[in-house]
Design brief:
This protein has 717 residues and is α/β, with parallel strands linked by helices. It has 3 domains: 187 residues; 266 residues, Glycogen Phosphorylase B (Rossmann fold); 187 residues, Glycogen Phosphorylase B (Rossmann fold). It is 44% helix and 13% strand. It is built from 24 helices and 17 strands. Strands 1, 2, 3, 4, 5, 6, 7, 8, 11 and 12 form a 10-stranded mixed beta sheet that branches. A hairpin with a 2-residue loop joins β4 and β5. α5 packs across α7 and α22 packs across α23. The longest helix has 59 residues.
Length: 717
């Protein structure tokens, strides 16, 4: 057995150089996708890129047939018909969205009138001349109106402003269909995709009636357009298991969507490959349709068929892989937590690579995530790098090293990998349980760069304290490790444009924040005064210690006349019972509980609060500290005492801009200390708040920049 010292001394082969690192890629049973001339297995010959299609109705028995020219033309026409139908649906939806926008504007006007009425009734009530019943009725009407505005806002956010990007993706998906049907070669498809990526706005205008055009006509226009100059942008494909809003279990879902949208706004082409889960809400997918050409994927010693579905989500092209023989893999009640999770996600990872090769895609970067798709690294360098992907590089994102997936080495052969070759200390062998392989470790070793997503922790602190037995591996590969913070969607969370607010505001004009505070106080029947200090708190899972700390913090604050709003977002029944008892203990005229959180009230709490209590500054799921800063509310960590000396970062290592800003301004401050500064040094406090609002901690800022730098670095290898 290797000691820690000997393990550190092992020379790790460098995956970026497949010739040196991986001498002899395995030759698994070739993918069985027959060419029209029946000339053997494989994807295609360099001289003859045409491939036959699966017959959609016959995919269950894996029947592949030879198509005549007439049959192939029929299939092309069928694909064209599907796209034309999709375009008609899109046009109809666009009309509906315009109606929804007008209805939203009308509802916001009604809201302002209702708020004025409630304010008048509140004044009358305080003076003793108003009717309580009339005020209660107005407040109920306001809640109904806020719910209505929330629904309309969601509809607006889902559809407005994405028409051109969606049109580009319709064109990209049309190209996928062309290459799968053999009309164009993989190289031509790659050139066309790059062209669209570099000229999205121009392309959207030039091909605004794309789905009404026949393939030949569309191809002619693409060829005419292809002599335009090109900019440098990356083609990135995420192979992942979550994406918001389709399927969301943890922080991965919002990260994939937020980063992908940010990258595309900066001129890069991003697409996502997901399993087709039975629990997925596919109503969120625009233009969802099955590509009428299936493909085989190798697993457990055989070739197994898959269906491929495509669509657009938040302006991002998404492909869904649906296994046929292993259909039960993703037709379950939840995403994770099964004894065969290794088999499920290994199958998906291999199938994703097969699909990329067969569709002729040649991305710059394959972006993989956590252990579930970390096996893509070994698969890529051992099997796929020589299948037209020589220019592609691998980037692994880790959100938490706690989940790593340890398995018996023999299981690697299920997807075509060679267990003896990989069950080594410098490759996949686990550092402590050496008889097992560690899938996440394999992803780290075989990736060109590894991004650790953490807003607060430094690189050195993660390696030393949060690596969960991967410290030797991370130490050896530390040169390719970088830290990226989480972000938030600033198109939805921006007080200067937020339609949920009674009045907008910004760092240049803060009058609207006072209006929002008064509106929040009125909504919750708190004593209305803009001079009152209002503290909001969002929480989900609270331990007994957290509850005791929160109780002490709230009681100390209310003794000083501070108003506190506790927003509970837990779906856990046990936690809910704890919170009910907690609510009984905190009966106070200055405390309000919200246990039915809608989108509108969530925005109003951020806008109306002076301070937002946070369970932690590292909240990847809720992104509470990030939103608080944007809305001019100071994020303060929950603590039960004023005497705190917490060090959030390791100053000897790299850290994020968010970490630096928090540590310098609010990181070592208790709630009592924050209240003291507001009362005793308001000018200094206001400068901090305005500085916070001016910072950009969205997905488009540091998070996106770190990833672009990582993509740039690995493309130079």
């Amino acid at each position: 057995m290797l000691t820690m010292t000997s393990l550190n001394a092992v020379t790790i082969p460098s995956p970026p150089n497949p010739t040196a690192a991986l001498r002899k890629p395995l030759r698994p049973r070739p993918v069985c996708c027959l060419r029209k001339n029946r000339g053997g297995n494989g994807l295609y010959n360099k001289g003859s890129p045409r491939v036959d299609l699966f017959r959609s109705a016959g995919l269950d028995n894996m029947e592949i047939h030879q198509s005549s020219n007439g049959e192939l033309e029929v299939k092309r026409n069928n694909i064209g018909k599907l796209f034309r139908e999709a375009q008609q649906n899109i046009l109809y939806l666009n009309k509906q969205r315009l109606v929804a926008v007008e209805e939203l504007n009308k509802a916001n006007r009604e809201k302002q009138l209702l708020l004025d009425r409630i304010e008048r009734l509140e004044v009358e009530k305080q003076a003793g001349v108003g009717k309580v019943e009339e005020l209660d009725k107005a407040n109920r009407e306001k809640q109904l109106l806020l719910d209505r505005i929330e629904r309309l806002e969601v509809e607006k956010q889902a559809g407005v402003g994405k028409d051109k990007l969606s049109l580009c993706w319709e064109l990209l998906l049309r190209i996928d269909s062309m290459v799968l049907s053999g009309m164009i070669s993989a190289g031509e498809a790659s050139d066309f995709r790059r062209l669209i990526m570099d000229h999205k706005v121009i392309v959207a205008d030039a091909f605004n009636e794309i789905l009404q055009k026949k393939d030949a006509e569309l191809l002619a226009e693409l060829l005419q357009f292809s002599d335009r100059s090109k900019k440098s942008g990356f083609h990135v494909i995420h192979i992942c298991t979550e994406m918001s809003p389709l399927v969301s279990v943890g922080s991965l879902a919002s990260y994939v969507t937020g980063l992908s949208c940010a990258l595309q706004r900066k001129g890069h082409l991003v697409e996502v490959i997901l399993p087709k889960y039975a629990i997925m809400d596919l109503d969120e997918v625009q233009g969802l349709q099955e590509i009428k050409a299936g493909f085989y994927s190798y697993f457990n010693g055989q070739q197994h068929g898959n269906r491929i579905w495509t669509g657009v989500v938040n302006g991002i092209g998404v492909s869904f892989i649906e296994p046929l023989y292993y259909s039960s893999f993703f037709s379950r009640e939840k995403v994770y937590g099964y004894s065969d999770d290794f088999e499920r996600f290994t199958y998906f990872s291999r199938a994703s690579l097969d699909y990329i090769v067969k569709s002729g895609k040649q991305p710059d970067v394959l972006h993989i995530h956590n252990w579930e798709t970390a096996i893509v690294g070994p698969l890529f360098w051992d099997i796929y790098v020589n299948q037209g992907l020589g220019g592609t590089r691998i980037l692994l994102t880790c959100h938490d090293f706690d989940s790593q997936c340890l398995e018996q080495p023999d299981k690697l052969s299920l997807c075509g990998l060679d267990p003896p070759r990989l069950h080594r200390p410098d490759r996949l062998q686990d550092n402590t349980k050496t008889h097992l392989v560690n899938i996440l470790k394999g992803g780290i070793v075989y990736s060109n760069q590894v991004v650790m997503v953490s807003s607060m922790n430094s690189k050195g602190r993660i390696i030393s304290s949060f690596s969960h037995e991967l410290k030797p591996t991370l130490s050896i590969h530390q040169d390719k490790l970088v830290i990226a913070p989480y972000g938030f969607d600033k198109s939805t969370w921006d007080p200067s444009k937020d339609n949920f607010l009674p009045e907008n505001y910004s760092a240049e004009d803060m009058k609207g924040k006072t209006v929002c505070k008064v509106a929040l106080q009125q909504h919750l029947a708190l004593s209305g005064s803009a001079s009152s200090i209002l503290v909001g708190c969002f929480f989900a899972e609270l331990s007994e210690i957290d509850m005791e700390n929160l109780k002490a913090v709230v009681q100390n604050a209310t003794r000083r006349g501070v108003q506190v709003i506790l927003v509970e977002i837990s779906k856990n029944s046990i936690t809910n019972k704890k919170l009910e008892s907690f609510q009984e203990l905190l009966k106070d005229q200055n405390v309000r509980f919200i246990n039915r959180l809608g989108e509108a009230i969530s925005h109003l709490v951020f806008a109306g609060s002076d301070i937002i209590l946070c369970q932690s500054f590292h909240e990847p799921d809720l992104q509470v500290p990030l939103k608080a800063l944007k809305y001019g509310a100071a994020p303060i960590a929950i603590t039960s005492t004023d005497d705190i000396s917490r060090n959030f970062v390791d100053y000897d290592y790299e850290r994020t801009k968010f970490s630096q800003f928090i540590s310098s301004n609010f990181g070592k401050m208790s709630l009592s200390q924050a209240l003291d500064e507001i009362e005793n040094n308001p000018s200094r406090w206001n400068r901090k708040i305005l500085a916070a609002m001016a910072m950009d901690f969205s997905w488009d800022a540091e998070c996106c920049d770190v990833h672009v730098s990582a993509y740039t670095a690995i493309k130079k290898l």
